[in-house]
Amino acid sequence: MKAEIIAVGTEILLGEIVNTNATYLSQVLTELGFDLYHQQVVGDNEARLLSSIDEASSRADLVVLCGGLGPTEDDLTKQTVAKYVDSELMYDEVALKHVTDYFVYSDRPMTENNKQQALTIKGATTIQNPAGLACGLLIEKEKTHFLLLPGPPREMKKMVEVGVLSLLSQLLPNKTKLVSRYLRFMGIGESLLVTELSELIEAQTNPTIAPYAKSNEVMLRIAAKCEKESEGYALLDSIEEKIKVKVGEYFYGYGENLTIEETVISLLSEKNKTLAIIETTTGGLCQSRLSKVVDSAKVFAGGRVLYSDEAICSYLETEDKRVYTEETTRLLAQKIKEEMKTTYGLCVMVVDESHATSYFPKGTILLSLVVGDKTYFDKMIINRDFEYVKDGAVKHSLNYLRKLVIKK
Fold first, then answer.
1. Is 63 in contact with 39 (CB distance < 8 Å)?
2. What DSSP string runs through 139-164?
3. Which of 205, 306, 322, 354 is most buried, most CB within 10 Å of its CB?
């Protein structure tokens, strides 16, 4: 079955707010088994909204309208849909009591226009709002269903979770559902990853493979349509195995929102190992990200940020002003490990414009890792803006650590 999303609101159309609702709803509808081929954004104008509804109705079994259910004059979605389906507006008594009780409890006067949020359409199924005031609804006309949801993301998501998912499952049952999995890769760019997987991508039918370029990493979403989840996961397992045969060396974990710092903290905890870090021009970015991971203090002891050349020389007790060198990186990693008494000592340095040389040009990442009596060194160059380079330095350093921890 086909679904289409219409985001209603001039503020979205003008770019004043980001349309995050469409992203969320697309994922939800896809997982339910709907096919999505179009999305629309329309301002708070009845004529244009009617046109958008008519267009969407000609090609979708479900039209989801998000926004325009509030109390102001430009909130026109319910009124417009009522006109399109040739039905009248009426108050939902449960929703009206919810609105009234809210103002009584808040000890605030309720203006007459707030009752508008309790309007539904005659013949519709009203969807109560567990996180706000404006109710939603589901109504059908000529085999097309119209689902109206509030615009504020928190309200919309809560309404979907509490009422909409089960409602759609009952009224619009799909034989097929979609199961998906996210694979994350680092150390390979999107273009090379796609090239390595070109045969699999060109031959894809079910499951499908979709690459997403992220900052200094790449994510693949593999998805399978199925009637039973077990069948879908079997399809995902099969395609994942083929993917890893080709690019498995770059794979570091699963999850749409997984981070390399979460992966590293989990791995160190599993191995009962500890880590200390020293940074220069990354300004503590690596340590900051690690500290945000739950329970990171159990394995991440802390570290230092030495920003100036003088601070680096003082810390190493040297007068050699050439601080952005392989030797310095190794010494810093060794000293922070000894100072913090940890299993691993990691040094992260990025050559900025003031330290660039012909050997280490701007954007060169220098990293050193010490474990036991062994010191490892690596370098790479990222020719992008400096914020992107710093992000790359953090991610690639932690990934370097991850691979070493696995080997040990």
1. no
2. EEETTEEEEEE-SSHHHHHHHIIIII
3. 306
Q: Which two tokens stand for residue 161?
A: 């979770």
DSSP for 260-325 reads: HHHHHHHHHHHHT--EEEEESTTTTHHHHHHHTSTTGGGTEEEEEE--SHHHHHHHHT------SS
- Segment 134-169, tens digit of pLDDT: 999 999 999 999 999 999 999 999 999 999 998 888
- Reply yes or no on whether the pLDDT at 332 is more than 70: yes
Q: Is 377 helix (H, G, I), strand (E, B) or coil?
A: strand
* Interacting residues of 336 by C-beta distance below 8 A, sequence separation 6+: 276, 277, 278, 303, 304, 345, 346, 347
Q: What is the pTM of this model?
A: 0.78
CATH 3.30.70.2860 fits 178-254, yes or no: yes
Contact (CB, 8 A) for 119 and 92:
yes
Q: Shortest CA distance to 348 belongs to which of 406, 313, 397, 290?
A: 397
User: What burial class does residue 134 get, using C-beta atoms within 10 Å of its C-beta: 0-12 exposed, 13-18 middle, 19+ buried?
Assistant: buried
Q: Please state the φ and ψ torsions of residue 349, each to the nearest 5 degrees.
A: -130, 145
Which strands sit side by side in the sheet containing 125-127, from one edge to the other?
Answer: 35-42, 2-8, 62-66, 144-149, 136-141, 125-127
Q: The tokens 């349509």 sit on which residue?
A: 225
Give the containing element (helix H, strand E) for 175. none
Per-residue pLDDT tens for 74-132?
Answer: 999 999 999 999 999 999 999 999 999 999 999 999 999 999 999 999 999 999 999 99
Residue 33 · residue 174 · CB < 8 Å: yes
- DSSP, residue by residue, 304-319: EE--SHHHHHHHHT--
Domain chopping of the chain, boundaries: 2-171, 178-254, 260-407
Tell me how long the chain is. 408
Class of domain 260-407: alpha beta
CATH for 2-171, among 1.10.10.60, 3.10.20.90, 3.40.50.1980, 3.40.980.10? 3.40.980.10
Mean pLDDT (whole number) for 38-47: 97
Q: Sign of the CA dihedral 93, 95, 98, 104? A: negative
The Cα–Cα gap between 284 and 305 comes to 6
